[in-house]
Structure formats: structure tokens, C-alpha cells
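Let's see one such:

===
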Amino acid sequence: MEIEKKFLIKDLPDLTKYEYVDIQQGYLSTSPVVRIRKKNDRYILTYKGGGLMAREELEAALDKESYEHLLEKIDGHPITKRRYLIPLNKYTVELDVFSGHMDGLIMAEVEFPSIEEANSFNPPDWFGEEVTEDRRYHNSNMIFENPFK
């Protein structure tokens, strides 16, 4: 089960002091969500169930050749982003700086072990508007065009 909240960013922290991973991902299906992802040199196939804040998530490893084969079959554009990993108390903020056709979008996700913790989370001052319930901010809905330009 994946339980996460999504936020826009009001004030970007100094990102030079944080680790990051480069991500490219594509969607073979958006209902249900079936995603392929390259995360640095790891390749992953992911199934995500329905829901906005809490939903089922299953992952399986892929090899590079399978990823590249499936990448030719995705719908729309691949999503490309640099994900910074920022410690925040007992959580990790995954701050995504998008490039490619979504260039300019910066968004943070925080994952939680329970719905209760997610609902009681107080975001830091540098977070902006919460967009968890806004489907436009789900990567699977960004594959055809940038809805924010």
C-alpha cells in the first residue's frame, strides 16, 4: 500500500546538499496504472491501483533491454525528473524537479506508514499548496501535455 501526499513548492531549499536520482518513466496504461521506470541504472515495472492518497502498489524488477523495449510502447511522452531526497523528521521528502515537456514543475511527495499519519502531517513552511486530490498532478495524467502551461 502506498500512502502519500503531494505538494507544490513555495520556497525551494538549497538542493546542492541533498542526494538525488534521475528518473525517466513511461506509462503503458493509465487505468489501471502500469508504469515502467528507469531510476539511475535500475529498471522497474510498477502496477498502481485506484485511489489518490492511498492505493495498492506492486513493483517488479526489469532489465535494461526489457525497459527499452517497453519504452517504445508507452502512451504519450516519457516523464523525466530529478528527485531530491530531503530528510524531514522521520520522513523523506521526495522533491521532483521535472524536465522535458513538464519543465518548470516542481513538486514534493511524502510517503507515510498509515493514513492517520498522513492526515496529521504538518508540512514545513517551504511547502506550498497540497495537490494530493488534484488528478492533474499525478504523473500518469501528465503524459500527453503539460496541463500547467
